Amino acid sequence: MKLQQVLSRVRKAVDDYGMIEEGDRIALGISGGKDSLTLLYALAHLRIFYPNHFEIHAITVDLGFGNFHLNKIQELCEKLNVPYTIVSTEIADIVFEKRKETNPCSLCAKMRKGALNEKIKELGCNKVAYGHHKADMVETLMMSMIFESRIHCFSPVTYLDRMDLTVIRPLMYMNEEDIIGFQNKMELPVAKSPCPMDGNTKREYAKQLIRKLDQDHPGARDHMFQAIVNADLKGWPPKNPPRKREKKKEK
Ligand SMILES: Nc1ncnc2c1ncn2[C@@H]1O[C@H](COP(=O)(O)OP(=O)(O)OP(=O)(O)O)[C@@H](O)[C@H]1O
């Protein structure tokens, strides 16, 4: 997929849900995977022409597994003129060695978000963008039904009251295959997570299930995604809010 096509999908999501307002300082959560690197590329370019002016700052939380090389991502950020911060942590050691968690993913995710949010606030950002795409959302719906007896999916825009921080998901209209195509075309410098749990989670189970459904009934994933968008789920904002372009008042 070409950059122009990525930008058009991202812009539609941003416009549909009013994700970016004038003067926003947006942190980009960069795991090192294909999704967040596509997000970095897209927002670095959207920044140039989007009517609402905004700044971006890329952040990676290094979980401390070792063997995680971020120098190529650092170079990409320099090329795109995006400031980049790496937060070093000992999360891997705490979760696997000290606590010996039997279910490590939830504690790890909680600690990772804590470290990320702390740095975001320190840098003075008011929003954070994640690299979640269409398949992530359908998987989340599937997991919520199978494991939690509820119909739930995270919202395109979520205001975190306690943190005074807004989460946005500009890749929500992107298909995973298109992100893979973009990654290959642009030769994005993916840094593979050395986590031993990678690819061995409930999410992976849901992913395989949806893949099978989509093979047996082509379009099933898209239909499920549309069902999410049309469902008026709890916490979801209405689509197409009026554009806010006026400058924020000085405090
Ligand atoms: N270590 C991290 N540091 C900063 N942000 C992160 C980190 N891990 C995840 N994120 C953010 O949270 C989002 C969702 O996390 P998740 O682990 O589901 O990523 P993913 O599906 O593997 O995506 P990616 O391909 O970008 O790694 C990522 O797209 C990214 O924006």
Describe this entry's structure for a reader.
By secondary structure, the protein is an alpha/beta fold. The protein has a single domain, classed as HUPs (Rossmann fold, 3-Layer(aba) Sandwich), CATH 3.40.50. It has 9 helices and 6 strands, in the order αβαβαβααβαββααα. It has helices at 3-16, 34-49, 71-80, 91-98, 104-122, 134-148, 176-186, 202-216, 220-230, and strands at 24-29, 54-62, 84-88, 127-129, 157-160, 165-168. It has a 6-stranded mixed sheet with strand order 3-2-1-4-6-5, sandwiched between helices. Strand 2 (54-62), helix 3 (71-80) and strand 3 form a beta-alpha-beta unit. Helix 1 (3-16) crosses helix 2 (34-49). 28% of the residues are buried. The model has no long low-confidence stretch (mean pLDDT 92). Bound molecules: adenosine-5'-triphosphate. Residues 29-31, 33-36, 59-61, 112, 116, 130-132, 136 line the site of adenosine-5'-triphosphate (ATP).
Question: Quick summary of this structure?
Answer:
The protein is α/β, with parallel strands linked by helices and 251 residues long.
Keywords summarizing the entry:
single chain, 251 residues, alpha/beta, Rossmann fold, six-stranded mixed sheet, 9 helices, 6 strands, 47% helix, globular, binds adenosine-5'-triphosphate
SSE layout and pairings?
Elements lengths: L2 H14 L7 E6 L4 H16 L4 E9 L8 H10 L3 E5 L2 H8 L5 H19 L4 E3 L4 H15 L8 E4 L4 E4 L7 H11 L15 H15 L3 H11 L21
Parallel strand pairs: 1-2, 1-4, 2-3, 4-6
Antiparallel strand pairs: 5-6
Bound molecules: adenosine-5'-triphosphate (ATP).
The site of adenosine-5'-triphosphate (ATP) has 16 residues, from helix 2, strand 2 and helix 5.
